[in-house]
Amino acid sequence: MDLIKPGTHIDFVGKMRKALILSAVLILISIGSLIYHKGPNWGVEFTGGSEIQIKLTKDVGPDQIKSTLDKAGYPPNEVQRIGLQSDNEYLIRFSADLVKFEQIQSFQKTLEGIMGSDPEFKDGSILRVDYIGPKVGAELIEKAIIAILLGCVGILIYVMLRFEFAFALGAVVALLHDIIITIGAVSIMDKEFTLTIIAALLTVIGYSVNDTIIIFDRIRENMKKGGRATFEEIVNDSVNQTLSRTILTSSTVFIVLLCLFFLGGTVIHDFAFALMVGVLVGTFSSVFVASAIVIYWRKKRGLTV
Amino acid sequence: MRASRGWIITIIVFSVLSALLLIPTIAGDSLPGWWGKIFPDRGIRLGLDLRGGIFLLIGVDTEKAVDHELNGIKDFMTQELKGEKILIKGSEIKGDDLTLQFFTKEDLDKGAKIAEENFSDRADINESGLSLAFVLNGSYLDEIQVRAIDQVKQVIENRVQELGLVEPSIQKAGADRILIQVPGASEKDRQRIIDIIKRSAVLEFKIVRDTGVDQDVLLAKYGVKSPDELNAQGTMLVPGDTGVENEKFFIATADSPVTGGSLTDARLIFDEFGRPAVGFNFNGEGASKFGELTEQNTGQRLAIVLDGTIKSAPTIQERIAGQGRITGTFTPEEAKDLALVLRSGALPVPVTVEQERTVGPSLGRDSIESGMMSMAVGGVLVIIFMVFFYRLQGVVSDLALALNMLFILGFLSAFGITLTLPGIAGLVLTMGMAVDGNIIILERIKEELRAGKSPVAAIDAGYARSLWTVLDANITTLITALILFWFGTGPIKGFAATVSIGIISTVFSNVVVARVITNLIYQDRKAPALSI
Question: Which of A169, B4, B414, B468 is the most exposed place for a label (fewest CB within 10 A)?
């Protein structure tokens, strides 16, 4: 069975200019959102502080939880609903400069007391307690960034060895493009930037490169065949030839992610969200951004085929 | 086109091996005893985020160890110089340096000689004016810090072991941290575990000089304004927690001839009023020192100081040697835990909790259940999808995927990798890449068929031409995964590990397993058409 009719010929290269404008807009929106939200909404793993995840039986709402805790003498920095509304799960956060480890211990006792007595909170439970000292968090951010950058360098070198510099540049630009827009989407939805999101970003990197390389591989193969086609034509043919694979793979992955998103529970929910954005953007960037960079760079260098 | 016998055997061996490695994971506790003697009996362990438990990152104050070292040098020098009838004018400890001041040049020279004889291997000794400076060597500083963290780890290990918890894990994390993981610990255990780990448990025995309710009044009585000034009188101010109303502060001797280091045993006992207390025994040296201390101070009050607070201050009736007890305001539970920490030894330097994560068992269970559920649904959809698009070749792909999953889980089992949520993310990524590899190859075969090749030739060409595509795509991801494994910490490392193992297995299943199965189906047949 064929998804794409054989011999389909869509003019992708001709649409690259429009596609790049769309990319630029998406990146600007992402950066705008990051500026508006004053950077990513870092989870306590990174900022230091405390985070307590609770599950209630009634739909109490973040505001009421906040006011109840205010009255109990532990005003939280933020109370946030997580997962789906029907989960009734909330995150209570305290920043590191306000709360010491010992205070979190006593806060927990108070919270257990409230859950035992207050009818609204009855039968609630504490699912998770996280305390992170400020020193650890800063180290984590640093290491994650170094790891991602080194990953980019590694890919750059490998692609350069296997292909040529223009392709390496295209792959890395497409990769950064996907990471920025995924981070932007997480920021726009005002989701917490946790380790889970970092794991999702790493996965996006994997997919993004994978996707790009497959088109590049075809371009290289077609280049070897020779003939009178211009480089643009070769790129266009290659994208068309791999189109059914691109769509089939992206949709299988997307199906799995939809399952994770709706059935995976609160912890996996955000992971799946970031990955869905990443896969969509990654597919788009493999077809348009990566190839456009290669075409542009080769033209600038005066390379024909 | 025949399936190579060698590859068939390899695949079968891998499958059987993976299945064997996976049996402990599936069987869990119901595994018969003899299994562990023949085959590995450790399955895939689930991380704390999946099964619930406590994760504690403890920061060790290694600077304090340097302080202790410098204080030790100072005490040694003071003692030695006393023997030479020399008095030190003053001393100062600043960072990694110790400075001793002398009254005369002759004193300084004698001091320098003693210092050279005893400490030249670990410190640079410099004279300037009338002072002598000890600057610890870089390598010796490292040694002190390593020793401190090793000792702390040992003490914590002893304590956690005595608590009788299941599968606790205690590891060094970096130069000055210790990571403690206790899976499956309940909310109730949590407080107790943290208290026991954090407790310094420094036990000292001093002689009480005076006591009172108000710190300032007490200090004024000795003509000083701040507790530090008591030093000159050979005494110090110690807060009290003895349960006696008007004894909030004590003045006690500064030196403590006997410490908790000389204990051989400590246990929960009940005193003559039936109150919980901790009974302890001394080792030989401790017993003789304690005997001496109590003999010389009969009639006075003994200060039993725990972590800088006087817990009880009984009057010494007669010489006591081998044993003693700490009474106070304990619950039986508290006394038991105190005995435990005393038995396992004092922490040589203070520790702080830098990170704590407690995942309730219900969250862990929910994560696993919904995680597994969603992956199962996703997996079934992918299987149907593949069969729908690629017919018989889709079935072949599904079979290769299933074997791939088996290999990956088998490997994870074999390496004893702990599966965490990011690890599951890694599995999702690899399965995605595996499906992708199949799609790349199958699409290529279709293209070759369209180009007019015979079915068998199309399969050959399809596999041959997409080999490097699949390899390139997977190697780039493997590079990122290896870098993450190298650089990442904790959860990121877990992700990188599953992805690395996953990718190697995926390439094998795409390029070899699927090919061998396809060959088995089409070999010897003239295959008029491919079901693809």
Answer: B4
What's the whole-model pTM score? 0.73
Architecture of domain B53-200+348-359: 2-Layer Sandwich (3.30)
- In terms of CA atoms, which chain B residue is nearest residue A269? B371
A contact test, residue of B436, B448, B485 with most A CBs within 10 A: B436
End-to-end CA distance of chain B: 18
Strands B131-136 vs B123-128: parallel, antiparallel or unpaired: antiparallel
CB contact under 8 Å between B443 and A205, yes or no, is: no
The CATH-assigned architecture of domain A49-132 is: 2-Layer Sandwich (3.30)
Q: Report B:159-188 residues touching A (Cβ under 8 A).
A: 187
Q: Cβ contact (<8 Å) for B421 and A143?
A: no
> What is the C-alpha to C-alpha distance for residues B44 and B21, in angstroms, rounded to an integer?
9
Match 């690899």 to its residue by tokens. B430
Which value does ipTM take for this structure? Answer: 0.81
Q: Which residues in chain B have Cβ-Cβ distances shorter than 8 Å to A6?
A: 447, 450
Among B residues 254-313, those touching chain A with beta carbons less than 8 Å apart: none
Three-state helix/strand/coil letters over A77-106: CEEEEECCHHHCEEEEEEECCCCCHHHHHH
Domain boundaries, chain B: 5-46+362-522, 53-200+348-359, 202-343
Between positions 5 and 64 of B, the ones with CB within 8 A of A are: 49, 57, 59
| CB-side neighbour CA atoms (13 Å) of A201 | 25
Specify the 3-state DSSP secondary structure of B236. Answer: strand
Which phi and psi (to 5°) does residue A193 adopt?
A: -90, 90
Q: Which helix (H) or strand (E) holds B209?
A: strand B203-212
Q: Which residues in chain B are contacts of A241 at CB distance < 8 A?
A: 447
Residue B370 near chain A (CB below 8 Å): yes
**B5-46+362-522 in CATH: which number?**
1.20.1640.10
Q: Which residue in A240, A259, A286 has the most chain B C-beta atoms within 10 A of its own C-beta, making it the best mutation to test that interface?
A: A259
* CATH class as words, domain A13-42+136-300: mainly alpha
Under an 8 A CB cutoff, do A147 and B492 touch? yes
Chain B CB contacts of A53 below 8 Å? 363
| B10, two tokens | 């390899």
| pLDDT of chain A, 305 residues: tens digit per residue | 677 777 778 898 889 999 999 999 999 999 999 999 888 888 777 777 888 888 888 888 888 888 888 888 888 888 888 877 777 888 888 876 656 777 777 788 888 888 888 888 888 888 888 887 767 777 777 877 888 888 888 888 999 999 999 999 999 999 999 999 999 999 999 888 887 788 788 788 888 888 899 999 999 999 988 778 889 999 999 999 999 889 988 888 888 888 888 887 777 788 889 999 999 999 999 999 999 999 999 999 887 76
